[in-house]
Amino acid sequence: MLEVIQLSKKYGNTLAADKIDFAVPDGKIGILLGPNGAGKSTVIKSIAGLLRYKGMIRIQGKDARSLEAKKSFAYVPELPYMYDALTVSEHLEFITRAYGVEVSENQRKELLERFELTDKQEKLGSELSKGMMQKVSICCALITKPKVILLDEPMVGLDPAAIKELKNVLAKLREDGCTILISTHMLEMVKEFWDVTFVMEKGQILGTYAKENLANEDLEELYFSVTEQGVQSGQEGR
Ligand code: ATP
Fold first, then answer.
1. Mutate to test the pocket of ligand 1, among 10, 11, 46 (most ligand atoms within 8 A of CB)
2. CB distance 14 to ligand 1 below 6 Å
3. Reading across the β-sheet that carries 62-63, which strands appear in turn?
4. What pTM did the predictor assign?
5. What is the per-residue pLDDT across 109-132, written as a single tens digit (0 to 9) for each?
6. Is the Cβ atom of 94 under 6 angstroms away from ligand 1?
C-alpha cells in the first residue's frame, strides 16, 4: 500500500503540492493525471525520496524515507539513467546486489526475453538507444520484486511490443498484490487497466475516482470533465 498524507512542497514561492492526500491499496493500479505543471512530478519525486517535503508518505506502512520502505519500493523515472560503463547484465546484477534480492538465472533470463533484451546483455549503457534504456530501467525495477512500484511516463519511448509486454507485466504484478502508481499523459495506454485515478491541478488533488464506482469508465472523458469543469459527480472525496 502507498499512502500520501498531507504532502506539501514549495519551490521558493511556488506551492507545487498543497496538502496532497491519496492512497493506492494493495493489488491496485493508481493513475496520477493532470495538466502540465499540475504537480505530478513533484509528488512522484517526493515519493521516490528525491525531494524534501512536508507531510508523510508511507510505503507498506513504513515511512518512505526508511530503508525498510525503500527495499520494498521500485521507481522507474521518466528519463532513464544508465551507467555508461556498465553492461545491461551488470546493471541488473548491481541492482539485485544493492537490494539484496535472490534472483534465479531463469527469472533473469525471462525478464530480459520479455523485453527483447537478450541479445543486448553485453551492451554498455552508453551504447543503448533511449527505448532500450527505458526497457533496462523497467527491468531494473522489476528484478527487485517490489511490493510498490512507481512509474513516471513509462510508455514514452517504448516500441509497441514493449508497451504490450509492460502492460502484461503490470497486470501480473497487480494480480500478485503489488501496488502500482503510474503518472502519465497517455490515457489511451492505461485505459483498460486502471483501478483508481487521482486528478491533479495547481498542486491539489481535484478528485479521486475509483473505477468500480463510476458508471462511465472512460478515463479521457473523466479527465476533461474534471479539469475543465471542476469537481464532478463520481468523486469519492478530496
Ligand atoms: P508536467 O506534466 O509538465 O511534467 P507536472 O504536473 O509534473 O508537469 P511539476 O513539474 O511537479 O508539474 O511542477 C509543478 C509546479 O512546480 C510548476 O509550477 C513548476 O513550474 C514548479 N516547479 C517544478 N520544479 C521546480 C523547480 N525545480 N524549481 C522551481 N519551480 C519548480
1. 11
2. yes
3. 14-24, 2-11, 54-59, 62-63
4. 0.91
5. 999 999 999 999 999 999 999 999
6. no
